[in-house]
What we know:
By secondary structure, the protein is of the alpha/beta class. It contains 18 helices and six strands.
Amino acid sequence: MNRAPFVPLLIDVPYLITAVLFIFAIKRLASPTTARSGNALGALGMLIAVIATLLHQEILGFQAILAGLVVGSAIGVVAARTVKMTAMPQMVAVLNGLGGGASALVAADEYLRIAAGAATATADVVLTIIIGVLVGAVTFSGSVIAFGKLQEVITGRAVTYPLQKTVNALLFAGIVAAGGWLVVAAEPSPSLFLAFSFASLLLGVLLVVPIGGADMPVVIAFLNSATGIAAAATGFVLRNHALIIVGALVGASGLILTQIMCRAMNRSLVNVLFGAFGAAVGANGAAAGREEGRTVREVTAEDAAILLGYARSVIIVPGYGLAVAQAQHQVRDLANALEARGVEVRFAIHPVAGRMPGHMNVLLAEANVPYDQLVEMERINADFERTDVALVIGANDVVNPAARSDPSSPLYGMPILDVDRAKHVIVLKRGMNPGFAGVENELFFQENTRMLFGDAKSSLTALVQEAKAMAGG
Ligand code: NAP
């Protein structure tokens, strides 16, 4: 079939529009004010690419595609509406896994077509197939394990065993050797290809198993980037420009995100991937860390409201517990009530508070907290010294002073919000449980710290009532 005259019109032009839309989408996703329209632009770009592909390729039957579209869309809509914000990392893990798995399947199908004589291939095509299958399979099985750890279906601990790195290195060497053979071999070898594919799946499992649950969000961002690379490789196999461009965009942005997260945790990517962080609870860990005989100072909602209501400035520090309690509306009500009393209220946002990048921004945006009240860590840290009350809501690791002062702490070196330097600190949490890193927090025992125990939503509701009663009285 001679498609040449129609190709630019039917496929290249829509793909170019898709690529431009995706680039604008990413640009707009960078700010909360424009993120919604960025998302819509991205979806539009994807729709154009899908329609162009379906119309252009010699599709044998639309029935299976339509059925897949209906089932997939239904699952997507239900998941997007029902999955809680706190479970978003798991959701992203599933989506990554499916993306990687799909890329691997498409590439594998192409190899099997070549083996069956239905298509011809040069060594460079087989090489891209091999890369697509390897990266896609590792991403798929790695994402399944990441999902299991985050969902607590399997242990969140870093699972280690003797000679682990040697076993992984040997497996990887075997995969590279098999892949190399498949590329240079004169005849396709489906059995070796199958072994190569299963070994790649196994590698994904073995690479993620020794990584602790606390590092899973970074692993997911990294796997996300790998999905992009797998998609780009598949794009080369299929000679599909949109897939190559989109894969490259996902690969690059995923890598940038991974780097941002690592920097915010003061860890290197190598340390995250191979450091087995969280294998055992160390000397500073939760199990060993509960110091007998030490007491914290509790405060009632009434007294906490008085402290807040008579402050000149309050900095609210949200953390993972605020997301768990889904208390974003109550925290906004409290901020409004305090502002009505003339208190200056700001929110301090730590880059890795919560369980995914931007978690706190998204949570507070849902409750319509104005963006100008959200201040990044670097810009607000110097202000804690001059602040009357730091109100810590469900945050723990991101305000742990051990990160500054205790070289033996696993958190040492991670930049934190300096809440301990405020005149008063009020901490809202349910008990004395540690945060994600599993370490004790000296902040809770400080002279200027008061603990208001309870679920963040009920504590905040009580605080709002007290603050309003003060206004009325
Ligand atoms: P955190 O250290 O995990 O602490 C959360 C605290 O919230 C817990 O101590 C818990 O104590 C409390 N909590 C839980 N449910 C609550 C509820 N319903 N009401 C009130 N309190 C509740 O959280 P964080 O300070 O936000 O730190 C984030 C952690 O995740 C860091 O270690 C960070 O490195 C890690 N991490 C984040 C990302 C990211 O992208 N954001 C990525 C990778 C890793 P109680 O059980 O006693 O209430």
